[in-house]
Every structure is written in structure tokens, then in C-alpha cells.
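no rush on this but wanted to send it before i forget. theres a chain ive been looking at and ive put its sequence and its fold in C-alpha cell form underneath. please have a look and point out which stretches look like helix strand or loop to you. thanks a lot i owe you, the record is right below:
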Amino acid sequence: MTSEPTTVHDERAGLVDGFGRVATDLRVSLTDRCNLRCNYCMPAEGLDWLPTDQTLTDDEVVRLVRIGVEMLGIREVRFTGGEPLLRRGLTDIVRRTTQLDPRPEVSLTTNALGLARTAPALAEAGLDRINASLDTVRADTFAQITRRDRLHDVIAGLEAADAAGIGPIKVNAVLLRGVNEDQAPELLQWCLDRDYQLRIIEQMPLDAQHDWSREAMVTAAEIFEILGRHFELTPDPEHRGSAPAETFLVDGGPATVGVIASVTRPFCGDCDRVRLTADGQVRNCLFARQESDLRGALRSGASDEEIADRWRLAMASKRPGHGIDDVAFLQPTRPMSAIGG
């Protein structure tokens, strides 16, 4: 990717930024609330949640998703949080999204608490797959990280999703130095035994406390070294494309493990993602410090065409990369729980 933006593209096209990247993957945060308190995400007492009147209604969410799919070329929609299972209208939102034409792929990023109860209804609504956050399969470590003794509920949720036919099930894990990095091989074997797909993510500077430091982060190179003591990892011959995970065959395959190295091996040049916050703000990058308001346009009577134009304009200013290595880098004011993964 060049450092100079291209100057020619159809302004009536999809979500094209100034560097020629096209956003086709929409991440929609349905709530900033969460029922865990992961210590790399938020403080034990939680955060000040968005007032209800600032959060998009179900109809507003579906309308924006429809505009994205029908007018702006969105092909994948992932609902996130906070914890999206806390959204009462989730199943109906999923159902209405899967009924759009063209039908997007619809997925969910969740901590899986409550999934045992909701998986059958989500499957019936057409949910294609889930990404579940799970950093350990040891109950004591889980409680240490999340400040909640709920590992059994997470496991039950994953089993229910699998039984309901929602798949593939991807497990997202963050390794914390001195806490669970030595458990990575154990977690991978646990996933292999259940045909889940493990994705290990470098900890990113998106915590509410702003405690992140590069020195404390477990890097991709360390992840490979830790896993390599127990498994033979070889590059996956499948083309990575715009996928954030760099995947590797485990012991010759066909099972794989992925590493998402947003910090040390950034993939910004192939990014195809755009984010919509629970209060209706467009974020053209996970680490953006500016947002573009669509909620105001929705509630002031703007037409679909006007909203689509606002969305296109919001994408035009996307930077070439997240800039974490830049000495002038500033962490976003919103934490991950408010942005949505």
C-alpha cells in the first residue's frame, strides 16, 4: 500500500477510502454493557454506560445495516458489544439482517454467557457463526482475568451453539504475561478436541484504564515460540486476503490456529472493516480518534441516500494505518467495550 492516497474513485460507489481500500465487513456494537470485567478491558467497578436514549433502537440498527448492505456493498455483518447477548432485541435484529437482499454473512462476537439459552433461537434466526472470547480453560485463571466465576457457563454456551449448528466456532484469546501465556498450548488442544478454531490476539491499547504497554504485551513471536514447544506449526497455504488472522496448520492440518498480530505485524493495508458504535457513530478504524455521527441524521429525518453519502464521507478520511508505532500515537478515548470488536 502506498502512503499517498489515490485520487480517482466513484463517489457513488461503496465504502472506498482514500487509499483504495473497500470496506465490506461491518462490525455493529449493539451495547457498551458487559457482564464480565476482564482486567485488560475495564476496571472492576465497570464503566459509565451509555444512556438508553443515546443507544440506537432495533429499527435504527437494522436500517443502518440495510443501507450498508443494499447501497454500500457490505457483505459481512458482525454484531458485537460490550456483550451483544445483553441486547434484548438481538434475535430479531439477526433475523431481520439475514432477510436482507443480498443476504450478508451474519456473525456474533460474544463472551458466550447466556448463549446456552439463546443459541437455538439465534440459529433459527439465521446466525451463521460466532467468535467467542475465552482466554483460558482453567476456572481459577478465568475468574482472575474476568473477575467472575463463570467458565462453566461459557463452555455450556459454546456447546449449545455447536449443537444448534452455528459454526464454525472461533475462540478468541488474549494472552497476559504472567497470567495465562503458558496455558496457550492447553487452550489450543482444548479447541482442537472440540473442532473449535482458536485465534490468539495480541493485547491492544484499547483498555479503559490505559494501562497497556508494549513491554507487557505477549507478542506474536512469543506466541509462536510457546505453541511451537508442543505443536508443529506451518503456514496455511490458503490465501489470507483481508482476514486479520494469520493462520497456521497444526501438526500438518487440517486443523489451524490463527494469530492476530495487530501491533507487531499490522495488516492495515488490507483492511476491509468499518465499525458502527451502539450510539450510531461510524468509526473507520478500531484506533480512530474521530467518529462520524449517523444517529443524528437518522433522527432528523435524513433519507437513505443522505445517510449513505454521510457514511461514504466518513470512510474517505481513513488513515493508512493505526499508527501504534508512531511516537505521536494516542490511544482512543473510547475503550474496546464501547467501540465493539
Remarks:
- The radius of gyration is 19 Å.
- The first strand starts at residue 15 and ends at 16.
- Residues 1-11 have pLDDT under 50 and may be disordered.
